[in-house]
């Protein structure tokens, strides 16, 4: 069925097949979506080649070894798909933060990604693609330091992504592109409210050290001071400048990736977002993820985006029906041959966690919470698909955020059932955030992408 849909799983020759509903990558028309890759051998855990010998624990760096192994596999996947690294338009990194430590607090910086970045630059020799790096509590592979997923584009006319840089905007410290343009698509890196200098060494410096740009700072002297609002305004303004440098604007954004260190900051963030996108049905689809570690001191929010160029604006339209989000976004946004969903949880507007997804009172150990929640999420997704006139079988990419990876096995049973007849399993990434998601009891947030060329229906 997948080939009939223009969708095909990519399996490099000789690559191990783990006992989960998994594809290393999925090709969908001109798109390639690569599942989250870590330094795992896919069958037993961390690959021996990526492990630091116990007898010599200080002679090698675990992050560097794992990154080298990870990018070796990504190279195999891209070659099997007939692509070069230069075709990659987005990279997401999920770093293992030390959130399980007893003294861990929000705002701590516990990730050292220097050697990962070194391996990444060796892999991407010309243009380092737009990038987002987020600290998470856990990965599926014991001992994994990092997991990364990738989006790439084919081009019949030989076009490559072109780096976009906005004049006067501070450049990312890790050296990745602020954005790239390819055809009528633009991809923007996840951005923080940092000028990559902060207040360290400033004349008259006093107080806590932080990485914030001067324009994004608040003084904390009065009631009602909401740092995340100021930071959000700054980030959106900077993303607008990068979009303009590419020849487009945020009004043509089709998907936003938003990460908040503290879910309590959501109302202040949403106030600013609603000013920028006052009509929820004209706002981009959005994955809004809480309880993560961000990579700069004092930064509370990170935002990345995918956009269309103005000449492709007619290919952008909201999908309505099937579900109405409580927050400021449409259920999904159609953009050319993709449909971006907003983040889905097993929620009911009347009860929070939906009754169908909740355990039976008095029988909390009967059944699988992961299965119930994922089954409910996928049923919600089907209702949105019905409103869009497409099949859930067209799902090509999923990013799954868990409050507890103990829910993963049950969730994958529901996932396997949903895609058993699709002919492919979507490319997928699964990570664990810290402390919980948006609604008490909800342990899974699913961010889905579907492939449906305009006018194809089905």
UniProtKB/TrEMBL annotation:
SUPFAM superfamilies: YjgF-like
UniProt-listed Gene3D superfamilies: RutC-like
Domain of life: Bacteria
GO function term, MF aspect, one: deaminase activity
One GO location term (cellular component): cytosol
Name of the protein in question: Enamine deaminase RidA (YjgF/YER057c/UK114 family)
Lineage: Bacteria, Bacillati, Bacillota, Bacilli, Bacillales
